[in-house]
Description:
By secondary structure, the protein is of the alpha+beta class. The protein has a single domain (6-178), classed as Peptide deformylase (Peptide Deformylase), CATH 3.90.45. Helix content is 22%, strand content 26%. The chain has a five-stranded antiparallel sheet with strand order 2-3-4-7-8, sandwiched between helices. Strands 1-9 form a two-stranded antiparallel ribbon. It is globular. The model has no long low-confidence stretch (mean pLDDT 96).
Amino acid sequence: xxxxxxxxxxDPVLHNPAKDVEEIDDxxxxxxxxxxxxxxxxPGVGLAAPQIGxxxxxxxxxxxxxxxxxxxxxxxxxxELGQISxxxxxxxxxxxxxxxxxxxxxxxxxxxWAKLSALDIEGKPYTLEVDGxxxxxxxxxxxxxxxxxxxxxxIEPYAQEVQGVIAxxxxxxxxxxxxxxxxxxxx
Length: 187
């Protein structure tokens, strides 16, 4: 297993849809193990393959849900969502961050319910229906597989603010990454 560098916004792999995994072989299993290790070291609650520079339709997740640790991999996932409210996001309870925009957090409205359908590491299909933060995590990671970062979904004034931060830090260019365990997340 190995911790891998995490791509920062601007790298093309983060802004294009990922490709389906054709076969779950030893290479894919190793990638998934590396993704878990990278997510844990970052630390994060989810990580998509594009975030480590791979245009593969895979994400991993790890979060407490209904009193249990829900840790897994979603290969070639699909996602059904509940309705997203038209209300403004709560700046205290609906704040989100992203390992590809390290150190920044902004309010974002998400659906309160999600149904994930995917393949596990053995290639077996599974379905999970979740709500709350777990639903948010699934939406965030699934967006990565569509080439969408959470910053792309922000409303004003947050959208303009994050773009200013990205410009100020010199992000938004291809090839930028940070290394969990070595680099600091704070800008």
